[in-house]
Specification:
mainly alpha; Tetracycline Repressor, domain 2
Length: 198
Amino acid sequence: MARSEPESRPSEARNRLLTTATRVFYAEGIHSVGVDRIVAEAQVTRATFYRHFPGKEDLVLAYLGAVDQAMRSQADTAVTAGPTPVDALRSIAAGIAQGIRSPGFRGCAFLNAVAEYPDPGSAVHQAVLAHRQWFLDIVEGQLARVRKASAEPAARHFVMLRDGAMAAGCLFEPDLVCETFLRGIEELLEGHAARRRP
């Protein structure tokens, strides 16, 4: 199945489809939005849609892939710019808080998607797991540079704090959620750095 041209040089129509899908999937949910709505709002034909995406799931995967790439870029910038691993992790946490405070915030795109695709065998579910593993690995890698012992549980703690903040951020006062989240991250980082090997 050769789809290399649209992926190597995205067309304007493909970009419009993906931009539209990203907006409506995130704001309203994936299952609640049909292909007809995306085609109409992107102002393309159904034939154009199917030329770029053989089915709706392909569009969902492209949407999650675009969100994943944006998050990877943000994390890479934080890691590159941070003079220390702790600074990099603080920057990653600050980026998460900034997202929570942004207009139209509706939680984590990946947690939202996996709630709609609970089957572990689905491609969407697998894409969510791959993204989450990448994020855990990034955090653990930075924590290991501070202190290798217990970097893995500390990384899991970081991710759980992030998940809680993303869920609470669209339900409660975002500034309070972010303040609580950033304080928790700071305490986690200080505790991880302060522990001594026995």
